[in-house]
Amino acid sequence: MRVVGVVAEYNPLHNGHIYQLEQAKKRTGAAYCIVAMSGNFVQRGEPACTDKFTRAEWALRAGADLVIEIPSVFANSSAERFAEGAIRLLAQTGIVTDLAFGCEEDDLDILYKLSDILSNETPEFQQTLAIHLKQGKSYPRARYDALEELGMNPVFLRELAKPNNILAIEYLRCINRFAQQISPCPIRRIQNAYNDVALSGQISSATAIRAAFKSGDPTVNAALPLFVSGALQFDEQFPITINDIGAMMLYKLRHMSDDEVREIPDVSEGFEQVIARAARQSYDTESFFAAVKSKRYTLARCKRIGMCALLNISEELTCQMRKPINGYLRVLGLRKSARSLLSAIVSVSNTPLIMRNSDQKCCTPTAQQSLYIDSFSTDVLSYALGKELHKDNQSAITL
């Protein structure tokens, strides 16, 4: 039996995602599709547009058979850790045979060559990278400039600069490291680019869709299935934005010592002092992020730091969660016709399958701490919205 895995955020789910899910099954011949999806917070360092259970239901309506949550420690992280958490999750099911992912370049030869280059860093590259990092550049920018300086093929450089390709390369690196039983299936993006800010009809980027909702552009509905556009248009609690939780984030940062801030992932080189000072002097998220972002610390990285502070995600916990023994499979949604997937996972996987709170007893203390953060993220959204959401101790969404 072939089972294709897809890594997603669905922030929000749009017609391009439906196309990807359709192509994932078609190209791999898979009978089922398992989606590893970010929870309430996403990789760009913000809350998702809706809570994770609403988005899990969207995924099921769009064609997924099973939705499993990417733990918050990975979902709210750099591309490398995000990819590792997601691929490790799919591999731990024991039944995923293929991975389908969107990218700008679907030539596997090119993607594999880039993966090999980035996985086998030469001393010369490391020295050149260090020089560019000392100039205050972000890691992706410094890596790109270092490779350009060392004479990388311009074709490879061009592909390395594209956002979805970066994740695709990280997926391939992870597959090579600990999921060699999974076959990659790249699916080229159609009609729009990842960071396009303008709508392009029925297939538009999530970036453009979020911007259109913010500006009140009614034409955005053409890019969304009805079950998504209806929720975002008529449910007043959605879409959720970072401003909804900004006060809580600043409150938390103001009550953290420099040493505690230093323990947040991606904080280094005295940046904890910059964060602490900005938190004390800022009264909204916009002014806070304007004060802390720089060439070295991009806006997305600063947002992730703020969300990790709010959710109590530490560097130590993130490192511990990278150990296979601390894994878990938290089910967010299930298609009734795919219940056999659960039996198949239980029969071959040593990773705890979490359907209800009592299942957490099988998890390690570290995994239980991570699960608490996943659950706490729902409480954060409930408090911000002033409305009770579907709770983590309730049953998974079923269709």
Structure write-up:
By secondary structure, this protein is α/β, with parallel strands linked by helices. It has three domains: 211 residues, Rossmann fold, CATH 3.40.50.620; 42 residues, no CATH class; 76 residues, no CATH class. Helices cover 51% and strands 11% of the residues. It contains 19 helices and ten strands. Helix 1 links the parallel strand 1 and strand 2. The mean pLDDT is 92.
Task: Kindly list the characteristics that best describe this protein.
399 residues, alpha/beta, Rossmann fold, 3 domains, eight-stranded mixed sheet, two-stranded antiparallel sheet, 19 helices, 51% helix, globular
Quick structural gist:
Helix 5 crosses helix 9 and helix 12 (246-254) crosses helix 14 (271-281).
List the helices and strands and how they pair.
Layout: E1 3-8, H1 15-28, E2 32-38, E3 41-42, E4 46-47, H2 52-62, E5 66-70, H3 72-75, H4 79-92, E6 98-103, H5 108-119, H6 123-134, H7 139-149, H8 154-160, H9 163-178, E7 183-188, H10 206-215, H11 226-234, H12 246-254, H13 258-262, H14 271-281, H15 285-292, H16 299-311, H17 315-321, E8 329-334, H18 340-348, E9 353-354, H19 365-385, E10 397-398
Parallel strand pairs: 1-2, 1-6, 2-5, 6-7, 8-9, 8-10
Antiparallel strand pairs: 3-4, 5-8
Helix pairs in contact: 4-9, 5-9, 6-7, 12-14, 12-16, 14-15
Any idea what the radius of gyration is?
A: 20 Å
Overall body shape: globular
Number of separate helices: 19
Task: Name the CATH superfamily classification of the largest domain.
Answer: HUPs
Show unreliable segments: none
Percentage beta strand = 5-15%
Largest sheet geometry? 8 strands, mixed
The CATH class label of the largest domain is Alpha Beta
Q: Give the overall average pLDDT.
A: 92
Distance between the termini: 22 Å
User: What kind of assembly state do the chains in view correspond to?
Assistant: single chain
Tally the structural domains.
3
The CATH topology of the largest domain corresponds to Rossmann fold
Helix content: 40-55%
- The ordered string of helix (H) and strand (E) elements is EHEEEHEHHEHHHHHEHHHHHHHHEHEHE
CATH architecture of the largest domain: 3-Layer(aba) Sandwich
- Structure summary, number of beta strands: 10
Could you say which structural class the secondary elements and strand pairing correspond to?
A: alpha/beta
